[in-house]
Amino acid sequence: MLVLASCSAYKYHTTKVQSTDFSQYHTYAWLPPSDSLSKSYFDNDIANANILETANRELEARGLTYSKDNPDLLFRYIAIVNNKSRPVYGGSRYGPWGMWGYNPWMWGPGWGAWGWGAWNGPVGKERYRAGHIIIEAKDRRSNTVIWQARGSGEVRNPEQAINKLPEIVTGVMEQFPLPAAK
């Protein structure tokens, strides 16, 4: 879902209930995905399969077993793509020495009032699409979310993004408090 064509351009963040002993959980099931805010990108069977197959493999590697009957944990995912903007920086057309103008020591080229600031400042904004896969786990007995992780990155091409979902979901699941068996 989140694609920057280069290697590991994804950022991962996680949070959990600190007092939870995750070793007490042995079974899991899936809740329906939350209403995605990016239906045009990831509301399709291929994206859903890429997310669930990868997450199931990662959960089983951590010793959890899928169970429809009274699972310990209930997982769900949310896929979001939204528009963002970031500053664009450009250099001074006069080079790193600044422009001609006032400088405290002389008239001429220097680092005066119009110098380095033009070199380092933002010159505009660029719009881009940011994608996020969020996976959360609820304790079925207490019906409270006990863990949540998010993988985020730039989406440049929807088809390529769908093909990258397994990589992103693996990164998200690496944040889960139970380590994968070696």
Number of domains: 1
Count of strand segments: 8
Name the helix and strand elements from N-terminus to C-terminus, one letter apiece.
EEHHEEEEHEEH
Trace the largest sheet across and list its strands: 1-8-7-4-2-3
CATH class (first level) name:
Alpha Beta
Rg result: 23 Å
Strand-pairing-aware structural class = alpha/beta
**Second CATH tier, the architecture:** 2-Layer Sandwich
Proportion of residues in extended strands: 35-45%
The DSSP helix count reads 4
**Approximately how much helix is present in the residues?**
10-25%
| Overall pLDDT | 81
In the CATH scheme, what's the topology name?
Answer: Double Stranded RNA Binding Domain
What are the SSEs and their pairings?
Layout: E1 11-16, E2 27-30, H1 39-42, H2 45-61, E3 65-66, E4 73-89, E5 100-103, E6 106-109, H3 116-120, E7 122-139, E8 144-155, H4 158-173
Parallel strand pairs: 2-3, 2-4
Antiparallel strand pairs: 1-8, 4-7, 5-6, 7-8
Helix pairs in contact: 2-4
